[in-house]
Design goal:
about 120 residues; mainly beta; seven-stranded mixed sheet; four-stranded antiparallel sheet
Length: about 120
Amino acid sequence: QVQLVESGGGLVQAGGSLRLSCAASGRTFSTYAMGWFRQAPGKEREFVAAISWDGGTTKYADFVKGRFTISRDNAKKTGYLQMNSLKPEDTAVYYCSARRGVVATTSAPYNYWGQGTQVTVSS
């Protein structure tokens, strides 16, 4: 069982940066792949980035490549999403997720979800 709590969201101007954190509970966190997804008002939840249990594999949505970086610290049971060069279209609720097994870029394979953190980018 894994419980996830996101933090680090907020209001930022376009071009600014934020770092989201995802704190996990549970002894087996280090064996789980992690993913970040986002959902804007009126839109479906979409994949942002994912990282394997050991950090050796990362995947990104095309619209964040070169701007966002996913990472994790298994000793701290925490995952991160560093977001740079933010755009107004990045405004959404950001969710972290976890699953056993390999990295996935769709939401269905993820078993555990946080409550989400709001990111708002003003123009």
